[in-house]
Amino acid sequence: QQQVKQSPQSLIVQKGGISIINCAYENTAFDYFPWYQQFPGKGPALLIAIRPDVSEKKEGRFTISFNKSAKQFSLHIMDSQPGDSATYFCAASITGGGNKLTFGTGTQLKVEL
Amino acid sequence: NAGVTQTPKFRVLKTGQSMTLLCAQDMNHEYMYWYRQDPGMGLRLIHYSVGEGTTAKGEVPDGYNVSRLKKQNFLLGLESAAPSQTSVYFCASRRGQGAGSTEAFFGQGTRLTVV
Residue range B93-115: average pLDDT? Predict the structure, then answer.
C-alpha cells in the first residue's frame, strides 16, 4: 500500500527551465511534508518542508505548493541548473509515534545544458 | 561534527550468513531509523527507535532485528541473509519532540549484496 504516490518517475528539463514533481497522499493525519534530495552514492538530505497550515513555501529557487483539499503537494524548481540533477523524494509524517517518514518512490531529475 | 555514520559502506554476503550494520550519531538525537532503498520503491522503514532501549517495527521488518543499547548507536542485524535483502540501507536520526525536531539526518548508506 503506497501511502504517498509520486510522479513522474523521471524528468528531463533544460537549463533555466522549471522542474515540477508531484505527490499525493492518502492519510489525512499526515502533518509534515518534506522533500529530500539525493545525489548518487549519498544519503538523502532535507531540501524544503511544509506543514498543512500554509499553501506555499519558498526557499530560494525551490517552492512547495500544498493543496490540503486535494491531498496533493508539489515541488517546483525554478531556473533549474545542472547541479540540481539528483533524485528527489517527497515524504510525509505524523507528529508523535516516532515521527516516521513515509516516502514516495522518487523522481530522477536530469537538467541538461 | 560527523552527523550520522554508517559502518560498513559495502558488504557482500552469502545466503544464510549473518551480519550487523552499525549506525552512530553524534547529535544527541532521540529518534533513530533504519530504511532500505530499492529501485522504484523509494525508502521503506524497517525498524525505528524513539529512545535508548526501545525499538519498534516499521513497514518491512521481516528478516531483520535491531538494538538500541546506547542512545548514539542503532544496530541492524540480519540473522540469515537472503538475496531479497540485497539493497542499500540507510540510517537516519531525528531529535525527539519539540522545536527543531522535524529534520531527519541520513547516513551515507550501506550497499549490501547477498549472493
Answer: 87
